[in-house]
Each structure stands twice: as C-alpha cells, then as structure tokens.
Specification:
Blueprint lengths: L1 H14 L1 H15 L3 H13 L7 H16 L10 H14 L4 H10 L1 H20 L3 H15 L2 H13 L3 H20 L11 H12 L3 H14 L4 H17 L4 H13 L4 H20 L3 H17 L6 H4 L10 H14 L3 H11 L9 H8 L4 H14 L5 H14 L5 H17 L4 H20 L3 H15 L3 H20 L4 E3 L8 E3 L15 H18 L6 E2 L1 H17 L15 H8 L1 E4 L4 H9 L7 H6 L6 E6 L4 E4 L11 H4 L2 E3 L5 E2 L7 E4 L8 E5 L8 E3 L10 E6 L10 E7 L5 E9 L4
Amino acid sequence: MKYYLIFFTLIFSSIGYGQLKNYQKAEKAYLSKNYFGANKTIDKCLENPETKNNKDVFLLKSKIAFEISKNSSNSDKYPKAYKDAINFAQKALNGFSNDYEKKEYVAKHQDFFNQIIAKNKKESFDAYYQKRYGKALPLLKDNIFFNNDTQSYLFVGDCYWQMDQKIEGIPYFKIASELIYTAYSDSTMRTMGYFKEPFKKLGEYYFKKQLYDSAYLYVKKGREISPQDPFLSDLTYALTKYNLNKILPSEDYMVAVESGLRDFPSDSFLNHKQNSIYIFMLNGLAKSNEQRAFDSILLKFSDAKIAKKRLKTLALIKNYDIFAGMSKEEFIPALSNYFATYNLRDACYSTFVSSHFPRPNQTNSKIHLVNLTQEKPAIAEIVFLKMIELNPKITSNNSERNNYTKTENKKPQPYYQLLPMIILNDQGLKSSSKDLDFRQKGIDFRLQLINEASDSADFKLARRIYYEYKKLSNLNSKQLEPLWKTILEKDFKVNYFGSRISIKGKNDPNAVEFNWNGVLDSCKPGKMSPQINLLLENRLNYFRRNAGLTEDIVFAKQDNLFAEIGAMMCEANKSLSHVPNDGWRCYIPAGVDALKDAILIKELNPAIAITAAMGQNHPTVGNRRWLLYPKSQFLGIGASKNYTIIKAIDHSRELDTNKYKNQFIAWPPENGVSKMLLFRKWSFSINQNLKEATVKMADNEGNNIELKQEIIENGYGLNTIVWEPIIKLDNYLDKEITILITLENKKTYSYKTKIYDYKI
C-alpha cells in the first residue's frame, strides 16, 4: 500500500491530475505488454498541452516504442518505432536543468537505458563497419548523448572523415583523443586497438594544414599509446624535419637531431643533419679562434661517430655517412681532409691543432712541421699558410713548406689535390722567385686541372683556372684557342645539349621525358620531377655562365609551384596574360602573382622555352635580360600542355653594386658561342648609363660589319644595348668578331667572340 501511495504522489506531482488517468492507463497497458494500446493512450498525453512536454510522458512513450521495435513484425504498422524510442528518451533527459538531477533520473530507470544504449550501439557500429556512414552518423551521436561513449566519438569523427567532411570530424577526434589519453594514463586501463586512431587522424590533418605544433602534440601522445605504429612514426619523422628547419644551427639543433636519431638511427636525412650541424659549429668556432670550445665539440662529434659502430644498421648508414663507425684515429684525418676539400680553412687548421698537441707556437713549430710532412697537400697547404701567418719571424717555416712542395711535385697528384698544389707552388714562387721549378709546376698543374675539371663538368673552376693559366703561360691566343674551345664544347654538350627534354610521344631515348600531369577539371597544376628541374637549372645556368655571370640561379620549390599554377591557368583559358582577371577559369591568386613576374611562352617543352626566352626577337630582349640578371637567385618554372611560365623577376641576391659596373654581360658571349645559340638579336648589358651609347662590329680583318642598333630601353634587368648584325652566318664560322661599345662619356668596352659549329 505504501508503494502505491509513493508512486501515486510522484505521478500526480509531475503530470497533473487531469491527465493522470491517461498516463495510468498507458502504463497499465505497457506493463501488460499491450504495447499498441499503450502507445495509443500515451499519445493522448502528448497531444494535451498540460502534458505534451512532460519528461515522464516522454520516457513512457520511449519505453513503449522500444518494445514495439523489438518485434520485426511490427515494422509495417509502426516503422518509426525505434527512432521514436531514441527521440523520446532524449527528450526525457533534455528536460533537466542540471546534471545531478539527470543522473538520478537515469539511475532510477537504469535497466531501460542500458537496453536502449546496447541496441543503439550495436546498430550504429554495424552500420559503421559496413561503411554506411550516413546511416551510422546519427546513431553514433545518440550513443554519445546517452553514454558519452569514447568509441562513438571516434567513429563519428571517422564518418565525417570518410565522407570528406574532415573539418566537421575534427572536434569529435579531439574529444576522443582526450578521453583515450586520460584513460591510458590510468595504468589499470587495458589499451584498445582503436586508441591510436584519433591521434593519427589529428596528426595527419594538422600536418597537411601546416599547423605543425598542433600536429606534434597529437602525434606525441599517440606514440605514447602506440610507439610502434608505422603511420605515427612517419609523421614523427616528417615533424622532426620541420622542427629542424625552424631551429637555427646550434646545440639546440643538435639536441633535436639526436632526439630524432634515437627513433630513426638509420635515416639518411638525420645522419646528414648530424654531420652538417657539427661541421657548422666547428667552422664557426674556428673562425672566431675559440680553440677550447672547438676541441670540446670535436670530441663530441668523434664520439657520436664512434658510437654508430654498435648499430646493426652500420653498413646501411655508411652509404650516406662517410664518418659513421670510424675510430678516433680514422676520424680526425678524414674530417681534416673534408674541411680542406671544401675550403673550410680555419676549421681544417683547428682540427690539425686539436689533434697534434702541444699546440703550435714559436717554440714547438718544428714538431708540427714534422707532422705536416705526412699530410696530404690539401691539409698541408692550409696549415703551412696559417703557421707562417701566425709566426712570420720564423723564416724556417717557408723553407720547410718549400721542401714539402718539391717533394710533392715529384709525385702524381689526383684531381682533388691539384688546387692545393697550385697554391703551394705559387707560395713557393713568392718566397723564392728565382726558383723556376715552382713557376713551371704551377703552370703544369693548372693545365692538368683545366682538363680534369672540364671532364668532371666543373666548368666554373675550369674557366677560372684557364684565365690564370693564360696569364702565366705566355701563350698567345692562337695557341690557347684549342684549350678554350674544348672547355666551351664540353660545357655545351654537358649542360646545354645534355639538358634537353623529350615530350611524351616524341621519341628521344637519351632525353628525360616530360608529360604534363595536371587536371583542368579540378584546376590541379602539373608537377615537374626533380630530375627535370635540375636539367632546366643546368640549361639556364649554362647561359648565365657563358654570358659572363658568376652567380647561378635555383628553380625554387615554392616558385615552381606558383609558376605551375600560372601555367595551368593559361592552359585552362588557352591564353597568356601577365594580368588575368578574376573571370578566368581556375583563377588562383598564387598563379596570378607568378604571371605578373613571369616570362610567358607558348611552348610545351620547358627546356626549349628557356632557349626561346634567350633568343627572344624583340628590340628590348627583355626576357633574356631577366634571365641574365645578376641579382636573380630564386626563380620558378612551370609548364602545361601548351605553355611554359618562367617566374623570372627576382632581386633577392645580395650583390656588390660595383661588380657589374665594369664586368659586362653579353650574348653572344665573349670568346665564343655555338652556332646553334647565335640568336638574331645581340646584346651587351652593364650597370652603366647607356644613353647615347653606340656599338660597332668588325671582322677578323678589321672590316666593319653592318648592323641595326635598337632604341635603348631601360627597365628590364641591367641596362642593355641591343643590335642586329646584318651578316651571312656561314661566312663567319671560326672567325673572330670584335665588338666595340662606346658610352656617351667616351668610355669603351671591347671584346671578341667567335662562332663555333660543334658536332654532336
């Protein structure tokens, strides 16, 4: 009796007396399993204004609908029974103003809520595993509502992810990751297979968005839970590389590298970085003459290399780390030789000092000179020069160096020792001017180096040494011409002819093939391979080197991307424009920026496009002038099916403003050009006022060559004179042509060129 009084009081207080009979009737029918009768009666409560928002009515409606949904034969008569069961259960719980009351209410009806949660979880998970993401999504959200289910948060996020609505899924992955990480921190919690998934998704999402700090946070937590997961390991590696790019070279940088090496001990990138940062720090300390700090870092470097001997993957690491696994006795000479080879002279000397105690000074220099006789010329040359510089009063140092040089002069010298042998002989000649052996060996080594540098495709070095050889050898131009022509011809074959590119469908088995892989329908630009990018750099730097520039350019990744977008935009609109309007198809701001500063060429082969830009038949030759601009450093190139875009206007290189006041840039260049690259328009550029400047040409017999000089126009790179000679080309093959430029102030520049017909 007491039970019924309590029950009656509760119902009366929550429903109201007028509708109590309908509620009791519905409940009685529900308890007697007359679910359709109960449903009909409870709907009367839902229709009445007094009770239509009552939580107890909602809950009873939910219980009735849930029971009906259990019998599949009822689906025809009441197809939305299960959906109503969920909806009204949610409405019942939404009626509470605070969580405490809500929890108490759920506890009173725990058996029912357990049933509805279990069924909903099964339905939602089945739909998810069947990849029916649209159906699974609302069911999974119901799981979250009733039970704050961790796995359901994950699955909701993944449903959005799989439906390519990633941004909507991120908040669910975040909550899942927080719940999982909190649970994982409890040592009694069993790790589940799905625990790593939200960390993988969040890491990937933020990494692609270039929000690297956020990506690192989630990847780090994910690896705590699943340290062997390959996907998380790959992301960790990518983030390690990014973090290294943020840190300036320092001991902090080294800490980051060595942290990465603990995870990826065999990785080539990290092993290279470990070497490069040690070398950077050592070189800096040597330049500032901080020998004690140098010794300390050198010891750490040595220990790091020795430690690699214990790694099972040492054989693999040795493929890209020349110092890996070396003993200290092997490491110091190898490092000294490295510093000497790359002309890090202060670091080479400090390494020698560090490894030969006591340190050299006025009293013990003899000890070191004895040690130097065992060193290679590249190291000995550096150390001798430094010791003589530090101890100028010890005249015996000069004679010791000269004796060393004469001993080495009798030996055959490999390519990499030729330059230091040239320096040693030049120094010997300075201190003993009557010793002609030093002079002759300096000439002989230069000739050997010119030939070997050309064979090694180091044409910058070959040219530099050639000009030194020309001054020392006392040979006339006719005697020197075969040597110079050999340098030019090899450079042409390696860097011009060797940089040709084949378009798919046009057979050239010895050329790299280019096939545009962009997609116009989705406005996706094509991408060039790194190999093609390098060939294009070689071609443009070939032109720059021969024109008289010592500054190379790089086709930078970001600039290439912008140029590729620009080329795709031109392809999509079948048009070239420096200022496309926003009505263009595939209008992308990055591409617009590239087109504004670009050379635009209707040519699908990017290598041919570079040559076409150099050979531009326009009175200003503006394209050529930008390609040969000294301050250019980072350019970009992109191509499509019909167009090539060269992002060419760049002023990023710091340059001595006086350098090109006297040093000129010309095409065809001084001293010779291939017939293939003799364009109609000739040009001469210099950082001078060329207003009223004139140009004259003469053949090898002094006869004037007729020409048409173009109006001088500034604004394209350096100031430039452009002219077109009126000549029959074949009459001038292998014959010198003299060009004379006269400025308004009567200053003149005279140079000679020659047209060669190389046989490929």
